[in-house]
Amino acid sequence: MNNKDSNISDLYVTLLHYPVINREGNIIISAVTNLDIHDISRACRTYGVKRFFIVTPDKEQQKISKEILDYWIYGKGGQLNPDRKEALQLVEIKSDIDSVRNEILKKTSKIPLVIATSAGYKGQVISCQNLKRDFLFNKNNKRPLILTFGTAFGLHESVYKNVDMILEPIKGSTTYNHLSVRCAVAIYLDRLLS
Fold it and tell me: Does the pTM of the predicted model rise above 0.90?
């Protein structure tokens, strides 16, 4: 499914590596991982996400990410695996979430809605069902949506103060709640777009 060919609002995914927290709750910049780049871009391509933004202010992490993308898009990896190349062409590297917002605003002339995710957020949240009905599949909503994920031990509290909505946490059938971000992205995209 390609969003251009459907009646749904444009959906973007961001993976924040800053500001996120470590095990002790301290703010950190987390490392970009090769698996996240590959697996999340493939999920985004499968579900028709417009763009997947990797967000890190760390110049070395940006460089490493660009080298990975260059290999799989322009190098031998892209020649050997055109499906992977197609998915990775959705990826863009940005320094901060404001750069993502501004780029989408510039491209669409619409202020995007930013929706944060969390494994354990305790405040007011929107359900996947209501997000689909009221925003994603609502023909009266013309604003693009940015679905925002955190790495390490989750988004820093400052992120939640600057978003429009927080999506309900994923709950399994047990009390264990430590999904990889790659799994969480795939589950949310399936719940929202299938």
Answer: yes
Q: Give the tokens for residue 141.
A: 């909503």
**Residues 6+ away with beta carbon under 8 Å from 85:** 72, 73, 77, 78
Report how far residue 71's alpha carbon sits from residue 148's, in angstroms, rounded to the nearest whole number.
Answer: 26
pLDDT at 122 over 90: no
CA 14, CA 100: separation in Å to the nearest integer?
Answer: 8
112 upstream amide cis, omega within 30 of 0: no
Number of domains in the chain: 1
pLDDT digits (tens, 9 = 90+) for 128-182: 999 999 999 998 988 999 999 999 999 999 999 999 999 999 999 999 988 999 9
Range of the domain at 171: 3-193
Q: Is the dihedral of CA 131, 171, 11, 111 positive or negative?
A: positive
Helix or strand (DSSP H, E) at 99: helix 97-108
The CATH number covering residue 82 comes to 3.40.1280.10
Cβ atoms of 112 and 12 within 8 Å: the answer is yes
Q: Give how far Cα 63 sits from Cα of 31, 87, 93, 116, 174, Å.
A: 12, 19, 9, 26, 39
| 194 vs 26: CA distance, rounded Å | 36
From CA 42, how far away is CA 48, in angstroms rounded? 10
Cβ-based neighbour number of residue 90 at 10 Å: 18
